[in-house]
């Protein structure tokens, strides 16, 4: 039999039990309840995997918060500030590292490769010592073994661990490899003693562009791990092709290699040619990053090729990467149309699907027939109403390059805009959302559930908008917003009003810790049947003399935060989104909204992992933004907003958006990011955030004025806008009112110095 497994499993549970248990523990400190829930979830998930056909189950892929944090704690890579707490109360210490608390600030958090999962960045320093300080992988092995399962512990490999870490002293984390390896070796020995047959070492960094020291580190590390007693080692690579790292990866002394054939099917031939005799190859044909059933017509030829070359004993099947990035079970989505449901595979379905492939390879007819039926169902997809719309395709086809252009160049537009809409120097504004109060949340929930009728709900929104405008006028802001009270989520709100989208009820995916997101599914051609935001923006504008900014989520962000259909290139889907949003921009303009903000907080995260692919992505992403904003009058001012500050890699692209004003997060980095704009000689308006909205702390006038003065060292006063880092929806009014008052006062003070 061809062996099947998976590299990792979703952690949260069918009903997000882990989220509830974590949040309860954070309130009441009852560790027993949390640990019981966690153990129960692990057992349930292993059983699910086994029932779906997995021959061995991953263990230690589970985490109470994050697996990179687990690895740091396991090997004692714990910064000094947490040590006392960790010793006194390991669980409290662990969560302090993850979330801060007890006067301790948390580890930094950042995105796991190009996913929307965030990991905690280990904080290391030169001379750091490591030791095997825990037994989580062993303990979880014993749990699985007690259930009669073949347990395969998952460890983040030593090189990826160091590459994902940072040092506080600027030294190279890789210099710590020699110190780290004995701790890994000690763990492998223990796993070996515990009777573990295989251990999985995740080295996703092998799919990145690597420099010579990193390659060298791989060779050193894996040679060392091969010396001691150890289970067989499966080296797991995912999120892309091995490419120029293929020889490196196949030369490492391990017993098996996992490759991602969902993202990089073209690498199979080269891998088969390079793979040493005896080595197991685990092929990831089922996509762990998306929610669509795989295409047997594409997958079976790959599998047959691998089987011919390797024979049954050396071929394994596992989804392309951990199933952490997909929801648990599409069987729960009874609210979706049957057709769509037939195209979907969440975690459980992916394992079942994989099992069919394995059985088909083993010559079982019913499996081959089931796969044929799947292929036929998928072939029907193209002819299902809404999947391919002639109107959408024709419009996209007829799109000229002109569509991505403003009518005039920026400097001319700036003059026209100053003429029709005179604003003071250092104009003040906000990023869009205002506090989402309990009343608002309740009204939205009641409206959804049918307990509040449309009329009553709309009254709540209208009252809220009026109130938000009054607050902004009282604070003395120059460009106002309606506050986005009608939006629960910046992507969902638009997706619900666009054709081609579907929403799941339980399709949660972990984002970080207990936080989950439920991405919409883009299954069909995207079109906008009716205006989406014009009504509330116009209503807001009717209440004030000051300009009210229209608020849209940009096409790249909608794409990035959705599960995207796999039968069209992403860039095509993005262009469809751009056209739909372009209509919205034009309708807002026609309704008298002269300033329109198109948020693109996800532009940067869509950047491909490999350098060679980045230019192409940035090119189409920028074009999509420009299509959205294109064609409006010179007097219409287009803003964009991004919530991060690492601009160096994408500054060309940001400039190429040709927005009139860009607002960005920068208060925590104290305006450091402006260097990139200065070096670039960026001419447009820039609003570097002066108020860190992630923190409950209310900054004072002087503090914000200082940040503005810092910004003016780099920017021309005519460029500088004054705004918070991001939307205010997570804050309360008690913080927002004084903060905005202080922000306006700071702007006035610095203005008077000009
Ligand atoms: N306009 C949105 C808001 O203010 C922007 C959110 C974001 O950038 N993530 O909430
Ligand atoms: Zn933001």
Automatic annotation (TrEMBL):
UniProt: 5-methyltetrahydropteroyltri-L-glutamate binding residues: 16-19, 111, 116, 515-516, 561, 605
Biological or metabolic pathway of the protein: Amino-acid biosynthesis; L-methionine biosynthesis via de novo pathway; L-methionine from L-homocysteine (MetE route): step 1/1
Keyword annotations of the record: Amino-acid biosynthesis, Metal-binding, Methionine biosynthesis, Methyltransferase, Repeat, Transferase, Zinc
Entries under InterPro entries matching the protein: Cbl-indep_Met_Synth_N, Cobalamin-indep_Met_synthase, Met_Synth_C/arc, UROD/MetE-like_sf
UniProt keyword Metal-binding present: yes
Domain of life, per lineage: Bacteria
Reaction(s) this enzyme catalyzes, per UniProt: 5-methyltetrahydropteroyltri-L-glutamate + L-homocysteine = tetrahydropteroyltri-L-glutamate + L-methionine
Gene3D superfamilies membership: 3.20.20.210
Binding positions (L-methionine): 431-433, 484, 599
UniProt-annotated catalytic positions: 694
Domain Cobalamin-independent methionine synthase MetE N-terminal: 4-307
Residues binding Zn(2+): 641, 643, 665, 726
UniProt GO molecular function: 5-methyltetrahydropteroyltriglutamate-homocysteine S-methyltransferase activity; zinc ion binding
Positions that bind L-homocysteine: 431-433, 484, 599
GO biological process: methionine biosynthetic process; methylation
HAMAP family: Meth_synth
NCBIfam families: met_syn_B12ind, PRK05222.1
Functional summary from the UniProt entry: Catalyzes the transfer of a methyl group from 5-methyltetrahydrofolate to homocysteine resulting in methionine formation.
Name assigned to this protein: 5-methyltetrahydropteroyltriglutamate--homocysteine methyltransferase
Organism in which the protein naturally occurs: Rhodanobacter glycinis
Gene name as annotated: metE
């Amino acid at each position: 039999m061809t062996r099947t497994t998976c590299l990792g499993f979703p952690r949260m549970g069918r009903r997000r039990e882990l989220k509830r248990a974590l949040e309860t523990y954070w309130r009441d400190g009852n560790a027993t309840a949390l640990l019981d829930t966690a153990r129960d979830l692990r057992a349930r998930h292993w059983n699910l995997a086994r029932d779906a056909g997995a021959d061995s189950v991953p263990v230690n892929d589970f985490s109470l918060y994050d697996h990179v944090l687990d690895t740091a704690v396991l090997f004692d890579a714990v910064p000094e500030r947490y040590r006392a707490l960790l010793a006194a109360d390991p669980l409290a210490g662990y969560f302090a590292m993850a979330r801060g608390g007890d006067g301790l600030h948390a580890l930094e958090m950042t995105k796991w490769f190009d996913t929307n999962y965030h990991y905690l960045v280990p904080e290391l320093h030169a001379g750091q010592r490591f030791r095997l300080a825990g037994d989580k992988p062993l303990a979880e092995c014993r749990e699985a073994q007690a259930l009669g399962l073949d347990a395969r512990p998952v460890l983040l490999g030593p090189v990826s661990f160091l590459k994902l870490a940072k040092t506080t002293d600027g030294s190279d984390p890789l210099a710590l490899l020699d110190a780290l390896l004995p701790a890994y070796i000690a763990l492998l020995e223990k796993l070996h003693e515990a009777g573990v047959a295989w251990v999985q070492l995740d080295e996703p960094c092998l799919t990145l562009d690597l420099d010579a020291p990193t390659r060298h580190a791989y060779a050193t590390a894996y040679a060392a791990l091969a010396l001691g007693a150890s289970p067989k080692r499966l080296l797991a690579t995912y999120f892309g092709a091995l490419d120029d790292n293929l020889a490196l990866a196949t030369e490492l002394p391990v017993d098996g290699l996992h490759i991602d054939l969902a993202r990089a099917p073209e690498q199979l031939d080269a891998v088969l040619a390079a793979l040493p005799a005896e080595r197991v190859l685990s092929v990831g044909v089922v996509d762990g990053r998306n929610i669509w059933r795989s295409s047997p017509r594409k997958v079976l030829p790959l599998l047959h090729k691998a089987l011919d070359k390797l024979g049954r004993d050396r071929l394994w099947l596992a989804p392309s990467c951990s199933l952490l990035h997909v929801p648990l079970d599409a069987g729960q989505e009874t609210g979706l149309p049957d057709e769509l449901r037939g195209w979907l595979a969440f975690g459980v379905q992916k394992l079942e699907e994989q099992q069919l492939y394995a059985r088909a390879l083993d010559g079982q007819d019913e499996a081959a027939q089931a796969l044929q039926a799947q292929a036929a169902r998928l072939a029907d997809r193209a002819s299902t109403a809404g999947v391919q719309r002639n109107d959408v395709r024709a419009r996209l086809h007829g799109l000229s390059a002109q569509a991505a252009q403003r009518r005039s160049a920026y400097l001319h537009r700036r003059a026209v805009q100053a003429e029709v809409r005179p604003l003071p120097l250092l104009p003040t504004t906000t990023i869009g959302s205002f506090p989402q109060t309990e009343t608002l949340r309740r009204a939205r929930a009641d409206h959804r559930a049918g307990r509040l009728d449309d009329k009553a709900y709309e009254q709540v929104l209208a009252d809220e908008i009026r109130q938000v405008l009054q607050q902004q006028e009282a604070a003395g802001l120059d460009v106002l917003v309606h506050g986005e009270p009608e939006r629960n989520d910046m992507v969902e709100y638009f997706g619900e009003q666009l054709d081609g989208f579907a929403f799941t009820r339980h399709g949660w995916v972990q984002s970080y810790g207990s936080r989950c997101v439920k991405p919409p599914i883009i299954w069909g051609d995207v079109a906008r049947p009716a205006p989406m935001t014009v009504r509330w923006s116009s209503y807001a504008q009717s209440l004030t003399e000051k300009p009210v900014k229209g608020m849209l989520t940009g096409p790249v962000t909608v794409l990035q935060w959705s599960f995207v259909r796999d039968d069209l290139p992403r860039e095509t889907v993005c262009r469809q989104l751009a056209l739909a949003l372009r209509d919205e921009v034009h309708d807002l303009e026609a309704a008298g909204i002269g300033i329109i903000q198109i948020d693109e907080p996800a532009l940067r995260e869509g950047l491909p992992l490999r350098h060679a692919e980045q230019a192409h992505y940035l090119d189409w992403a920028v074009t999509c933004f420009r299509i959205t904003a294109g064609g409006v009058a010179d007097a219409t001012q287009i803003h964009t907003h991004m919530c991060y500050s690492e601009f160096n890699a994408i500054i060309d692209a940001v400039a190429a958006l040709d927005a009139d004003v860009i607002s960005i997060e920068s208060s925590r980095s104290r305006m450091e990011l402006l260097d990139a704009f200065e070096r670039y000689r960026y001419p447009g308006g820039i609003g570097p955030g002066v108020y860190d909205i992630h923190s409950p702390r209310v900054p004072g006038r002087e503090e914000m004025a200082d940040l503005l003065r810092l910004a003016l060292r780099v920017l021309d006063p005519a460029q500088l806008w004054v705004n918070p880092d991001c939307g205010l929806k997570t804050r309360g009014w008690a913080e927002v009112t004084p903060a905005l008052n202080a922000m306006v006062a700071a702007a006035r003070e610095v203005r008077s110095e000009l």
